[in-house]
TrEMBL record:
Entry keyword set: Oxidoreductase
Family: Belongs to the short-chain dehydrogenases/reductases (SDR) family.
Coiled coil: none
Protein name (record): NADP-dependent 3-hydroxy acid dehydrogenase YdfG
Protein's UniProt keywords contain ATP-binding: no
GO MF: 3-hydroxypropionate dehydrogenase (NADP+) activity
Broad enzyme group: oxidoreductase
Domain of life: Bacteria
EC number assigned by the record: 1.1.1.298, 1.1.1.381
Classification lineage: Bacteria, Bacillati, Actinomycetota, Actinomycetes, Micrococcales
Family annotation (SUPFAM superfamilies): NAD(P)-binding Rossmann-fold domains
Physiological role: NADP-dependent dehydrogenase with broad substrate specificity acting on 3-hydroxy acids. Catalyzes the NADP-dependent oxidation of L-allo-threonine to L-2-amino-3-keto-butyrate, which is spontaneously decarboxylated into aminoacetone. Also acts on D-threonine, L-serine, D-serine, D-3-hydroxyisobutyrate, L-3-hydroxyisobutyrate, D-glycerate and L-glycerate. Able to catalyze the reduction of the malonic semialdehyde to 3-hydroxypropionic acid.
Oxidoreductase in keyword set: yes
UniProt catalytic activity: 3-hydroxypropanoate + NADP(+) = 3-oxopropanoate + NADPH + H(+); L-allo-threonine + NADP(+) = aminoacetone + CO2 + NADPH
Length: 263
């Protein structure tokens, strides 16, 4: 079963670059109208103009900082005022930090948790009732292979992605008979701006994938008759995630520490 998305609307957070921009491109190619949300208005408009020209879809741009309480209701209210109904939600916005936890800036940690966890949950809760009613699209929450084991050196980031994975798989089960496809996407190292923001390439463990490969993994999973609650992008990453779940916890933590720490 191939989902076309023609005539539906997808809301994509963190859509100015990387996986968010790639989701926008691949969904637009299948006929989806778009709502693109990120902080960088100029970059969002560049992405929007390109997709309007290539695919003839409607693209709404909403420059917004998502790390605020109540952002889900704010987004829903804004789109309702424009008579836009969301069928597909791609929660992609997020960032990571890389250092010993004791050395991290408390304000940055709070922002990381707010964006990676609180905003994702808030936005999902705001739009899920409408998406369940239409049952024409999908909910994709971007987790990470970091979700499968604690990561010393990226303690907060790994914990936020473990939350995303657990939360999404639970929602997928709760909604399994609804017709809405719910998926946690778990990429490994990907060629995006993530590592520039992180400030270190040492956390890029394993074979680097492109955004197109990662989003392609998600689209293929959504096309399956029985969409899984989660999917890991890349066979090497799938093998590593499988080992992380089977090895003793202390072993996986030690391996992760050696893989990402550069101090």
């Amino acid at each position: 079963m191939t989902m076309t998305y023609s005539g539906t609307t997808a809301l994509i957070t963190g859509a100015s670059s990387g996986l968010g921009a790639e989701f926008a491109s691949q969904l637009a190619a299948r006929g989806s109208h778009l709502v693109l949300v990120a902080r960088r208005a100029d970059r969002l408009e560049e992405v929007a103009q390109d997709l309007r020209s290539k695919h003839g879809v409607n693209v709404t741009v909403l420059p917004m900082d998502l790390g605020r309480p109540g952002v889900g209701r704010e987004l829903l209210s804004e789109l309702s005022s424009r008579d836009i109904t969301v069928d597909t939600l791609i929660n992609n916005a997020g960032f990571g930090t890389h250092s010993a936890f004791v050395d991290e800036d408390p304000e940055v940690i709070a922002s990381e948790i707010s964006l990676n966890v609180a905003a994702l949950v808030d936005i999902t809760r705001a739009f899920l009732p409408g998406m369940l009613s239409s049952a024409k699209g999908a909910l994709v929450n971007v987790a990470s292979t970091a979700a499968f084991q604690p990561i010393p050196g990226m303690a907060v980031y790994g914990a936020t992605k473990a939350f995303v994975l657990s939360f999404t798989e639970a929602v997928a089960h709760e909604t399994k008979d609804s017709g809405l496809n719910v998926l946690a996407l778990c990429p490994g190292a990907t060629r995006t701006e993530f590592f520039d923001v992180l400030g270190s390439q040492s956390a890029a463990v394993g074979r680097m994938q492109t955004s197109a490969q990662v989003v392609g993994t998600a689209i293929k999973a959504l096309d399956r008759k029985g969409t899984p609650g989660s999917v890991v992008s890349g066979w090497v990453n799938r093998v590593a995630a499988g080992f992380a779940q089977r090895l003793p916890r202390a072993v996986t933590v030690a391996i992760a520490a050696r893989a990402v720490q550069d101090w």
